Each structure stands twice: as structure tokens, then as C-alpha cells.
Predict the structure.
Amino acid sequence: MKVIITIPAYNEEKTIVPVIEEIKRIMSQTSYDYKIHVQDDGSKDRTAELAKKAGAIVSSNPRNMGLAENFQAEMISCLKLKADVIVHTDADGQYLPYHIPQLIKKVEEGYDLVLGSRFRGKIRGMPLTKRIGNKMFSKVISSLTKLKITDSTTGFRAFTKDVAQNIEFINRFTYTQEQIIKAAKQNFKVIEIPIETRKTRDSRLFKNPLEYAVKAWINILRIYRDYDPLNFFGIIGFIFLLFGFLIGLYFFYLHVTVGIVGHVGLMMLMLLLIINGIQIIMFGFFADMKKK
Ligand SMILES: Nc1nc2c(ncn2[C@@H]2O[C@H](COP(=O)(O)OP(=O)(O)O)[C@@H](O)[C@H]2O)c(=O)[nH]1
Ligand SMILES: [Mg+2]
């Protein structure tokens, strides 16, 4: 069984070497056949050179592609290296490598995707906004997958080559939630284990909380649309119908009291809301038919 430990890195010359050394120290105490791989995402500093010197296999993207696309490049690289098990961790040293053998062990026990959850273990230094956003994500994802997920955005995970091979990504912003949802939907066995983390430099991925929140919510809505279209369109259509119905009630009230005179605009609005509402619900049914 071949283990590839892969690390995405963008301008990480300060931390990449200690991270690699620390992983080597832990892994050398095990009997796993492993290699460390760094996917350099167009770094402009010495990340690639230093990682190579520290003993990692380095693949470099021609330009900075961002986390999600970089992750796909990582999967291709790992599969080329004939990985049976892939362990993914970050270049900033946030995740403690002593958990790596624990993650791998779960894969050996038959799980396909093992997540290191920062919320089940000790968490240090995650800002409140991010923590709240993360909790909300986890709720949505738990309800979509029917699994108990506490940390859906963790970058610390181990999975089989089948998971790497069979999951395609549409999100260009992050891979983290999509991998969990698609794995669960494809009947891969997913589990979380608690992990301890270390406080590191500030996140570079999510510098701007507002941008993060907006992108995260668009992400959630797209996930809902794709995996639960009947609910997604159903709720929107229902809101249209509800307003149409309320206006209808008002007309009924007029009819039994003073009688309906004029109100052409309002009447049209009512019809529009009701017809559109029904149409949107129909979209839900069509989308449900084509559901992935
Ligand atoms: N591929 C890629 N990876 C990045 C980029 N920015 C950060 N990373 C990597 O993603 C991982 C997590 O980054 P970090 O800034 O610690 O974000 P955090 O997960 O929010 O703490 C690290 O390994 C970074 O090197 C980027 O633009 N592209
Ligand atoms: Mg970090």
C-alpha cells in the first residue's frame, strides 16, 4: 500500500521545510511506504526549490490556479505516483502530523474518506466569523449527506485512490465541501476523527471575511440546487405562491365586503406570482429528474 502525503503550497518558503521535516519524522516511525508530494501553485518564492531539497516530490503549476484547481492537479499528480492512499495537509503547519498515521489507519479499516475535524478536537486560533461560517456549512452538509460532519472545510484528510479518481469538481473556489458531499452521494464511507491544531500565521485563503461569506453562501446555494433541487426550487416557488395567495385573500375579502372595483395592477401581480410560483416549482421537478 502506497501512501502519498500531498501538500498544496503557494509562497510558503518559510514553513514548507519544517512541515516536510516534521512529517518525515513522524512517518519514519511507522512502516508505511510513503512519499511526500508538494503541489506548488505558481509560487514566486523558493517554495519549490526548498521542498525538493527537503526530500519532497514537487509538481509545479505554470501559474497560480487557486486552491480548488490546484487540488485537482494534486489528485492527478498523486495518481501518477501510484498512490493507494492520499493524505492531504497544509503547508503552514496548522495540522499536526502525528495525526497522519491515525488518518491512514481509518482508511485501512475500510473508510474511503477520513476527515480531521478541528471541532471534535482542540482548536486554536480560528477567528469567530470563520468558526460561525464553518458551523453553518457543517449543518447544511450534514443534512445533505445524512452524516454527522462537524468540520467540512478541513484541509487535513486521507482518502483512497478511488475517491481521488471518481470525484469531479465544479467549484472553482474550494474543494473541501464538494469532496465530502460527492463522496457521500457516491456511497463512499466517510468518517471524521478529532484532531488538534496549532495556531499559525493568518489564513491567506480567506483574507476578506465578507468575500468569504458571500462566496460561501453562493457555494451553499449551488450545493442545495444540485443535490436537493426539489427543496431549493420548491421553497422559492412556494414563497411566490404564498404572496400570490395573500393577495388573493385580500381580493376575496373585497369581494365579500365592498366588491372588487379596479385593482387591475394588483390582480396582475397576483396572477404573475401564482403562475411564476407554479413554474418555479415545476423547475424543481425537472431538475430533480436530472439530479446527479
Ligand atoms: N493552491 C493554492 N494553495 C494555496 C493558495 N493560498 C494558500 N494556499 C495553500 O493552502 C493551504 C492553506 O492555506 P492557509 O492560508 O493556511 O488557509 P487556511 O486553511 O484558511 O488556514 C496552505 O497549504 C497554502 O499554501 C493558493 O492561492 N493556491
Ligand atoms: Mg492555515
